Amino acid sequence: MSDTLYDVVIIGAGPAGIQAAIHASRKKxxxxxxxxxxxxxxxxxxxxNYAFVGGVTDxxxxxxxxxxQAETFGTEVSPEDVLKIxxxxxxxxxxxxxxxxxxxxxxxxxxxxxxKKLKVPGENDFAGRGVSYCVDCDANFYxxxxxxxxxxxxxxxxxxxxxxxxxxxxxxxxxxxxxxPELLSRLEESEVEWIQDTITAIKGEHAVTSIQLDxxxxxxxDGIFIELGSKGALELATQIGVLLDTESFKYIQTNxxxxxxxxxxxxxxxxxxxxxxxxxxxxxGCVAGMAAATYARSLxxxxxxxxx
Length: 308
Known about the structure:
about 300 residues, alpha/beta
């Protein structure tokens, strides 16, 4: 068990996560926000429809100001990705890409929902027939098979390592990896074959049979996992039984306080559904941040009373 215990941990450093951090920190709780602002959809956007912000403002500037505000109120900020989440009694255990583990009384999912695509020939044709976007969801279908994973961040490396428990052969295709030294070391010491190249096409007949590389020979494979970026909110949420919406299974289901079906876990921003606007994300973050902090403070008082 980790000896680092927070009241509120927020996954995601976009407008929802930052606003949640500001409100949670102001309630005298220990808050950690995990994520990189450059991963937010707002980072490369230009804003002119947000109240109180005149003219056209770069999203990256808005995010940087928000981070500074959160830190001023006491939020700890770390660019680490989360690889796994589990529940231990009334606390949540998070495993980060550096290998360290932290505990928290409450948790807020504040990441987007879109899955990045490779945009190469064959990707759409073989979706669900050898092309997958979630190792945690589909690894079991490739027991004893040959599989490839592509991506340059923690999701791809962690996915390739996970697939070693299922597949007979695992390739990782990625030109440059932007991960922690600890995660890179685990990859280099594993049986995953890392190919420093890019995929230009996915081929097959009724299902995937190979992938074409930009500079190398084709790789014969039974499947390709496209894991671009960090672990998505849906993958992490479903690890611990958070319910999704029953119509599309694309969003996390919450109540008016932005709490999920699991006490202590909240969600805000694009991950709970449209419209995908900064104004809505900020509002969601405000509600989730205050609710999570209130929950964590109540739990902390009870735990302290029980220990006394």
